[in-house]
Amino acid sequence: MTPITILQSAADTRPDWVSRCMTSVADWSQRQGYGYHCIGDELFNWVTPELRAKLHDRIPILADLARLRWIEAELSERGTLVVWIDADTLVVDPTWRVPDSTHTFFGEECWVQPTAERSWRAYQSPHNAFMGFTATSPVLGFLAYLSESIIERADAAHIAPQMVGPKLLKALNNLAQFTLVPEAGAVSPELLAEWVGEAGPATTCYEQATRAPLTLVNLCSSLTHSEEAVRRVEQFLARYGA
Fold first, then answer.
1. CA-CA distances (angstroms) from residue 22 to 50, 86, 87, 126, 147?
2. In angstroms, rounded to a whole number, what is the distance separating the alpha carbons of residues 214 and 8?
3. How confident is the model at residue 156 (pLDDT cuts 50, 70, 90)?
C-alpha cells in the first residue's frame, strides 16, 4: 500500500463552516492512516516575492500556484503520494480511500447550472480542489512551470479567476486526458439548494449525468457570501455530521 500524505492550508480568513470541513478531512486522514499536514499563510512562501507583489489582491490565484510548489517540495522529501484537498471540502464518506494506482489524478466536478435558454446543463470537468501526484508524475512539474509562466506574463489587472486552476486543467485535459476522480466532486449553489430542500430540475440534471456517489464534496466557499448560501451549507454540514 502506497504511503499517502494529505495537504491542506488554512490560509486567509476562514468562516467557521470551513474549519469544520477541515476537521472532517483531518479525522478521515487519521482513520485511514494517512499523513496529514496543514499550514496557514506560509503557503504563499512557495510563491516568489515578485509574484506575491504582483497579485497581492488575488489570493486564490496565488494559492493555485503555491499548492503545486508545496506538493513538489513534499514529494522531494517524502517521495510517496501527496494529495491536496481544498479547505472547503467536506468528507461525506470516511470509509473511502484515495486511489493510489496512478501517478497523477484530479477531482472531477459535475457543475449544474441554468442556461440562457432556461434549461439546465451539467458541466463535467477536472478541478484542483482535489489532486494527487507521485514523484514519478510527468504532470506536476510542467503544471507548476506553466502556471508560474502564465502569471508572470499576464496583465495583473486582467487575470481571470481560475486562470491557472480549473480553467487551465480543463484546457490541458482536452489533450492529455488526465485520470479523474468523480467521487471527489463539487456542488453548485443551485444544486446544493435542492439537496438541502426539495429536489427539482438541478437534481434531475445531475442524476441524468450518472455520477458515482460523492465521497468528498467541495462546497465552494468563494460562492458562499449571502446569509441564505451560508444557511444551506450549514444544513448540508449538519446532514453529514460535521
1. 30, 8, 6, 21, 26
2. 20
3. confident
E strand intervals along 43-196: 81-85, 89-91, 104-114, 120-134, 180-181, 184-186
Contact 25, 8 (CB under 8 A): yes
Cα pseudo-dihedral 135, 35, 218, 46, rounded to 10: -60
Which three cell numbers mark 94?
Answer: 470516511
Tens digit of each residue's pLDDT (9 = 90 or more) over 184-223: 999 999 999 999 999 999 999 999 998 889 999 999 888 8
- 41 DSSP 8-state letter: G
Helix (H) or strand (E) holding 20: helix 16-32
**Burial letters for 49-81: b for 16+ Cβ neighbours within 10 Å, e otherwise?**
eebeebbeebbebbbbbbbbbbbbebbeeeeeb
pLDDT in tens, 56-105: 888 899 999 999 999 999 999 888 999 999 999 999 999 999 999 999 99
